[in-house]
Each structure stands twice: as structure tokens, then as C-alpha cells.
Design goal:
0% of the residues lie in helices and 46% in strands. The protein has no helices and eight strands. The protein has a three-stranded antiparallel beta sheet with strand order 1-6-7, with no helix packed on it. 15% of the residues are buried. Keywords: Plasmid.
């Protein structure tokens, strides 16, 4: 791993839930989907799509991001598309590519919760 940075919650003016899919293990045989990844304690890992807004003055920028999040239940069962959420302990990382030159960037969070809960326990 090259580097990781914690992302301050105030970086985004709003984050909206867009959807989720199981995060699958890497399989070198091309288009074959591997099993769903899990944390060391067996919690399923999800690839969560969010629309993140940043505001500078009167300018609003929107980015569609994929964030890796461990959750016991499918996030689509807890959150509706377009619902404002908070990503708990969001981290940005850079790692070398598995094959070839270059690097990959990624985002992960410890959990998701409805917006406005602040430091309440993560879902």
C-alpha cells in the first residue's frame, strides 16, 4: 500500500445513497465472479455507490463514488436510493496495481448511517 488518508466528514456537503452490490474476491480467470468478500470476523463486504456533493461558494460539484463498506445486511435493505447518508470513518487509499505499472485508488468506510446522526453507532 502506498498511502491512506482519513477523509474529514465536512469534505462533502451531502452524500446520497445510490445502490450497492456484493464486493467479490479477485478471480484471475476474467469475467468469473468470485465469492463475496468478508472481513476477518465474517461480515460481508459491499461496494456501495454514492453521489457525493462538494460545495465551494456557489459552485456545487457532484461525483459518483464507489465505497467499500462492511455490513451484515444488504445496504439496499436499509437505505433508499437518494437518501442522505453519512459514511463512518471514510478513508481514501492508493495501492500499486496487481499487474503492470501504475496504481489504483479506493475508498472504504467502517459503516453507513442516515445523515444527521453524527457520531452515533455505525450501521
Amino acid at each position: 500500500m502506498l498511502d491512506t488518508v482519513k477523509v474529514a466528514p465536512e469534505t462533502f456537503s451531502n452524500i446520497e445513497f445510490r445502490g450497492a452490490m456484493p464486493k467479490t474476491a479477485y478471480v484471475p480467470q476474467g469475467n468469473v465472479a468470485g465469492p463475496q468478500k468478508q472481513t476477518s470476523n465474517g461480515t460481508p463486504i459491499w461496494a456501495v455507490r454514492v453521489l457525493a456533493e462538494t460545495t465551494r461558494g456557489l459552485r456545487v460539484k457532484e461525483d459518483l463514488l464507489t465505497v467499500t463498506v462492511p455490513m451484515q445486511v444488504d445496504p439496499t435493505e436499509k437505505f433508499e436510493r437518494g437518501q442522505s447518508i453519512e459514511l463512518v470513518s471514510l478513508t481514501f487509499g492508493v495501492t500499486p496495481k496487481r499487474e503492470g505499472n501504475g496504481f489504483s485508488t479506493w475508498l472504504s468506510a467502517d459503516g453507513i448511517q442516515p445523515a444527521g446522526l453524527g457520531k452515533a453507532a455505525a450501521s
